[in-house]
UniProtKB/TrEMBL annotation:
Main subcellular localisation: membrane
Protein topology in the membrane: Multi-pass membrane protein
GO biological process terms held by the UniProt record: transmembrane transport
CDD domains: TM_PBP2 (cd06261)
The species this protein was found in: Roseibium aggregatum
Protein's name in the database: Iron ABC transporter permease
Amino acid sequence: MLRTPSTTPADRFWHFAALLIAAMVLLPVCAIVWISLTPSADVWSHLLQTVLPGAFRTTLLLMLGVGLITGITGIGTAWLVTMCNFPGRGIMDWALLVPLAVPTYIVAFAYVEVLDYTGPVQSLIRDAFGFKTSRDYWFPEIRSLGGAVFVMGAVLYPYVYLTTRASFLIQSASTLDVSRTLGASPYGLFFRIALPLARPAIAIGVSLALMECLNDIGAVTFFGVKTLTFSVYDTWLNRSSLGGAAQLALAMLLMVFLLLWLERFGRRKQRYDSGGGAKHRPPTRFDLAGWKSGLALAACILPIVLGFVVPGLLLADRASRRLEELLSDGFWGMVWNSFSLAAIAALLTVAISVSLAYALRLNGKGPLRVAVRLASIGYAIPGTVLAIGILIPLASFDNFIDARMENWFGIDTGLLLLGSGTGLVYAYVVRFLAVSYGQVEGGFGRISPHLDMAARTLGRNAGQTLSQVHLPILKPVLLSAALLSFVDCMKELPATILLRPFNFETLATTVFEAASREAFEDAALPSLAIVLVGLIPVIFLARSSASSFRTRLSHRHRETAARTATP
């Protein structure tokens, strides 16, 4: 943080702007709390007796199952690619990330198509054994809670894999070597040394996966799983009870805050020195041969096949039957809607992130630091909850303007904000601000405060210092932040369904509606477009995570050499 001897009007401007932005981000949460406490008195009792217990129980079971699958898969594969040598390890190192490119709702409708009664798997079983109906044989029901757990676990495990792999990479090799000399077996080394040291990273990865699980609306709808998210959607749209939906959203918020607390509780007092001395090096890998190497390779390939290859091949096959849609105006209209909204939201998100990070750099004391931290919680809030919180203030504003214009000028303005997509962009910005802000803040942290002091000495104010010094240096960081925000906005479904203007379709909403009416071929081409766009940040993430580790390692070696050379 840069501390200046005096506070100029420009500094106060950035401070006020950051506080205003934080207030706008928190506005949806405040709106949910307000409306959930003001509806008719019988709503709470009705929800507590009918909807909430079942939805809460189903949500907990779903999160428990997804947490177990993502934890086991992510930790196991991270250990294999980090600590073991086997054929194909280098490819598996980055390929295990590719399921992140496929949204859960796309994988869900793909597996419904593959494993349902009319799908190729059950059809092959009936043809092979001569079965006539489903009563003649048993097959697991994909449209169930178990099916939702399987699909979400197959897609969301990379969150745990990524954080745990990074933790294994930076653990001191000398610590592991000492354990080996004391007779620790590979299994003992994993369970007694590496796994406890990686607990903070595992807690972060599992929490991210569970937040995405809680946010999902597409997969649970396809599988008929009545989670809290589904109940909010159903109560609002099908039962026309905004107050009831707001109260369910408040229950989801409480669950999110509990999840965040559990994540911090899981990381309590778990900060270890990774060993910055001269002996810090990548861990020595175990050489696997024979059946062990084959088993390790199979364990890494299986999640990739289930989370990416199977849905990807199905989408490619179904999309190849509808290639004529590439020439239709409707398809390109959906592409334009998705692209334009995501681009606007990504630019705004990056601009707001720069404002927050720069204001904190100028003077990060007290209320401002708290406000910026609160402004970054949007990623943890499910899209359905955000949609309700945004609808309330924007609808009130639209109705106020429309009434005034009608009374004063006889003009019917309609829904200025909600009808123009402004509410949707607002939701995107609040939801994905944390993704962009984390990168921008890290970029500012790598810029020396001496550059700011030099610019101020040369007569530059805060705004000129930002535009002439920081932004040119931050160009790569801003580009990556905008890219990640853009792709997240392209894939976002819950808020898009609830806040989009009338007769406004995006790629995500088209996939959802087509799959809801069992028209899988209609959804294939839009789904494939979303997956191809989603591959861009995954490739970027795979490359940047490896280069980031190499940079940290070489930096530590340089620091060690400098300390050694100093008398």
